[in-house]
Amino acid sequence: MKTINRELSWLSFNARVLQEARDERVPLIERFRFLGIYSNNLDEFFRVRVAGVRRMINLKQKKVYGYDGTAEELYKDIRKVVLHQQELFESCYLHLTRQLINEGIYLVDEQTITPSLAKQVSQYFKETFKHMLFPIILDKKSAFPDLRDDAIYLAIKIQKKGFTNRYAILQIPPGKARFHVMNDGKDAFFILADDIIRIHLSNIFSMVPSDKISAYTFKFTRDAELDLDDDVTESYSEKIERSLKKRKKGTPVRFVYDEFMPDDLLSYLLTCLGLKKAANAIPGGRYHNFKDFLQFPDFNRKDLLYAPQPPYPNAFLESGHQILECMQERDVFLHFPYQKFDYIIDILREAAIDPLVSEIKINVYRLAPDSQIMRALIAAIYNRKQVVVVMELQARFDEENNLQWSNQLKEHGAKVIYGAPNLKVHSKLLYIKRKNKDNDLSVAYIGTGNFNEQTSRVYTDFSLLTSEKRLVSEVSKVFKLLENNMERVSFRHLMVSPINYRRKIGQLIDKEIALAKAKKPAFIRIKLNNLTDRLMIEKLIEASAAGVRVEMIVRGICCLKTNLNKNPNLTVISIVDRYLEHARCMIFGNDGHPLFYIGSADLMERNLDFRIEVAAPIFDPAIQAEITEIFEYQWRGTVKSRWITSDMKNEYRRTEGPPFHAQRNLYAKYAPQETS
Known about the structure:
Layout: H1 6-22, H2 28-58, H3 71-102, E1 105-107, H4 115-129, E2 136-138, E3 153-159, E4 166-171, E5 179-184, E6 187-192, H5 193-199, H6 201-204, E7 212-222, H7 236-247, E8 252-258, H8 263-273, H9 277-280, E9 281-284, H10 323-329, E10 332-336, H11 342-353, E11 357-364, H12 372-382, E12 386-391, H13 399-412, E13 415-417, E14 424-425, E15 429-434, E16 443-447, E17 459-466, H14 469-483, E18 495-497, H15 501-517, E19 523-528, H16 534-546, E20 549-554, E21 570-575, E22 580-581, E23 585-588, E24 595-599, H17 605-609, E25 611-617, H18 621-636, E26 641-643, H19 662-669
Parallel strand pairs: 1-6, 8-9, 11-12, 12-13, 14-25, 17-22, 19-20, 20-21
Antiparallel strand pairs: 2-4, 3-4, 3-7, 5-6, 7-8, 10-17, 11-15, 15-16, 16-17, 18-25, 19-23, 21-26, 23-24, 24-25
């Protein structure tokens, strides 16, 4: 087998996230938040990828890409890895709570809470918590309630001597803080919502006769695939809206429960949900839905958090001129979150009132819930600019947010397009048509990340602001292609999937192979999120075998098998750190005249063949030098860099010389230079 299975490689990536939670070099409270990231990732993995494997099993599929076995065998291997990671997760959580004690921060529950703290909790329960609880008594006569897969539940066992045991479920209130923080003297204490409920079970179930009431946490995960049929009587947005409702009743794929849950209660729940213990149920610890730990309290302890790293300004864009005018002078490269994302909002604000601007076109994949980008576009509509928004409604788990924004935009008068038939629009483009009497002053934005001011604080991404005619005209072509139902156009400079992206990359790799065979220096440097495409993997292996030096930084899934001892020309590393590495770039040696590209696509079949993706060449020598420097920083990194190898051990990279922390040094690199 030449490749690694995608699902197993993804689990290896999430293991790197778990490594951050276990890393003593990471500030203590941030380590709890990495537990939250790991948990949130795993939820999505089961909702999407494991659900897909379950569908393959139901279809009796024998062959699985990158795996020497059946879908059933793959599922068993996934389960084995998840259970092992679950053990590491639980031990990490217990270790971290013990470390909090050394900092004067204590986790309490119904058994360890002191009388004075219990009084505080009781007051909190009465005033703000009790009225939000709605227990459901379970019996055979009533239908089992529909469960939400983004919620946490307590399974309740009610015992009374001489009576049959009774069961109930209780949802922990959604939207309510999972943690309640208290102080008692100089120390800080916190209790989880789960345990606040446990303390007050007798109060909650006061109407039910009982001798003993106990509660055990569980969570439930459903298949998240949207079912879009070919009903021509419905609009695309109506199909999305209907499918979102169906998703809430999708096929169950996982049931995670407190391992101390009594067998009778567990059996009852599994029977009601139509699940099998060996196939769907995963035993865990006392608490679930650790994604809530993304909002783990900071206890006002800045020493236990990452040091603040506010984004730095770009000196050229801070020169006092309008950004649209700056873009006429030269191309501008921005690197988030090290530099300010606010410039992108400012560009749209300027365009909204600039009398030279007549049109604004943008394609959108994921947005902040309170998007300033969208508000700037609405302002542009009021100022009588023509606004065209290509809105991707199938951005997984952001469908509802995108649907709401698209409806708002249409109400205000924007032209909203829902992409192309059978193709997700994943490119990150902005086009502003701007002219005076004599000149076309149009500009474009080409990026690697979403127009999302929230994620721009934690995702590393590149963006190019340009008035370069060769690029701006072709960005305009992409929008025409989308507006005119994929009318065939050609691109000389941009890589646009599914039109020419795959072919152009193949040609660039072939040129490096030819150079290597001619005994000339040849190299390929690629940074991306995921590498799964079989043809691209084979091409990169061919290049390395021919003598091309291939260096890759792959954050997530990497199906390429590497072995440093057998093929030293092919090296892959992964960086998992404070910021999520999301930027994508490619550098090709090109016989001493390197070619540089930044873009929106990973090297995955879906990106190259089934999505609209765009990568742009970088013509400006100064920006080329900056991209080279960024890659060099990350390639030198040893503190948060792991080798990606066939055994998926995620060993930290060690090289000669002092440790080099790539993200920390990159932040320092962007600091304004002092002038004497």
